[in-house]
Design a protein that fits this description.
The protein is an alpha+beta fold. It has helices at 3-10, 46-55, 85-92, 97-115, 179-195, 209-215, 227-240, 279-297, 311-332, 338-341, 349-375; strands at 12-19, 24-29, 35-41, 63-69, 72-78, 82-84, 121-122, 131-134, 139-141, 148-149. It folds into 3 domains: 3-78, Phosphorylase Kinase, domain 1 (2-Layer Sandwich); 82-253, Transferase(Phosphotransferase), domain 1, CATH 1.10.510; 299-375, no CATH class. The protein contains 11 helices and 10 strands. The strands form 3 sheets. It has a 5-stranded antiparallel β-sheet, with helices on both faces.
């Protein structure tokens, strides 16, 4: 541990020990006064924690500090105020099918950028006690102690980790964990939310049973092969059950209104400003898009000889202006997680900002080049 790392760690004052067996403390930053979680891990994958720290993905605890010393990894991460699904069920009982599906949608949204990163990150311990409903109603995925990177060259996991009943067969030495491992655990989790029991109990025979059984198939090849396939099945269920929504305390959903009532399953595909279904955002975004369309459709352009363009050259210039404005909005708004998918965007905040400027600059150059090539005069 370097002197700088020792100083950084000393900035967090231990308040109370939350778990003796796992060496987990509640700590407070000396300067900001903000409360965090401190973990000392004996078994860990430091690369995973460093990638999570640099990626800063939504709805997982933000990693503030990650220091390895004497084969112990000390992690300082965001403290989530709220209840785990396990705690929620202890107080309120099981979930309805509609609410269980809404939670599954939220978990899919969290897992997708993890599974589509390169190499993919597999959580390997999806279960109700690792899924939280924060005090502001957001579904969060916590505890990445068992996470690993998927490696095509490995035939099986080098270390068996996970939780009994929720762990897929490959976590017991029957192959290597991959994104389908998390799909298995999510299927068990859905079943548990509905029954507080496990799929081998045979207690549940409702409308979600075919989806759950495909998730928990012993053969990975028979499961959903990725999160997108599972999400599409959940969308079909949601379409047939219009009452499907997140718990009333949750804000990690599209609020039903006249525009979004039937569009919840597709909310990630809606334009920036419409994805959450929040009325004020829709009211703000609608005139904004109309203004952009009006400005671009009435744009006048003068050619190099001072003569106003018309016909196809004018159309190309107007279209280029429209693409530049809309592309900027969709990129800054991270439409369909586009920023998370691009190289060098899942690192430090400074590098993320620099690459955002570079990607937008390259995008503008490409649009201007095409406009000049096709519609220049």
């Amino acid at each position: 541990m370097t002197i700088e790392e020792r100083y950084e760690l000393s900035c967090y004052q231990e308040l109370t020990k939350l778990d003796d067996s796992k060496n987990i403390w509640l700590v407070r930053h000396n300067e900001s006064g903000i409360i965090y979680i401190k973990k000392e891990l004996q078994w860990f994958n430091q690369d995973i924690y460093m990638r999570l720290k640099n990626a800063n993905l939504p709805n997982i605890p933000r990693i503030m500090l990650c220091i390895c010393d004497d084969s112990v990894l000390t992690v300082i991460e965001e403290y989530i105020h709220g209840l785990t699904l396990e705690q929620f069920m202890e107080q309120n009982g099981t979930f309805s099918e509609e609410k269980a599906v809404s939670i599954a949608f939220a978990v899919c949204d969290i897992l997708e950028p993890l599974h589509t990163s390169q190499p993919p990150i597999v959580h390997r311990d999806i279960k109700p006690s690792n899924i939280m409903i924060s005090n502001d109603g957001i579904i969060k995925l916590i505890d990445f102690n068992a996470a690993k990177e998927f490696n095509l060259t490995h035939s099986e996991d080098t270390r068996l980790m996970g939780t009994k009943k929720f762990a897929a067969p490959e976590q017991y030495g029957f192959g290597q964990s991959d994104p389908r491992t998390d799909i298995y655990a999510l299927g068990v989790t859905i079943y548990y939310l509905l029954t507080k029991d496990y799929p081998d109990s045979g207690r549940y025979h409702g409308k979600l049973n075919p989806i759950i059984q495909k998730c928990v198939h012993l053969d990975k090849a028979e499961r959903y092969q990725n999160i997108d396939q599972l999400r599409k099945e959940l969308i079909v269920f949601a379409q047939k059950n219009s009452s499907t929504e997140m718990p009333s305390s949750s804000k990690n959903r599209v609020k039903h209104n006249l525009f979004t009532k039937q569009l919840y399953p597709y909310h990630e595909k809606l334009p920036v400003g419409f994805r959450t279904g929040t009325n004020w955002k829709i009211i703000t975004a609608t005139p904004g898009y109309l203004l952009i369309f009006w400005l671009c459709s009435t744009l006048t352009v003068t050619g190099s000889k001072g003569i106003p363009l018309s016909g196809f050259p004018l159309f190309v210039n107007r279209l280029g202006s429209f693409l530049m404005l809309m592309g900027t909005i969709f990129f800054i708004g991270n439409y369909c997680h586009i920023r998370n998918r691009l190289p060098l965007m899942n690192h430090s905040r400074l590098l993320h900002l620099i690459m955002t400027i570079i990607y937008l600059f390259v995008y503008y150059i490409l649009i201007l080049s095409l406009v000049t090539l096709l519609g220049g005069a």
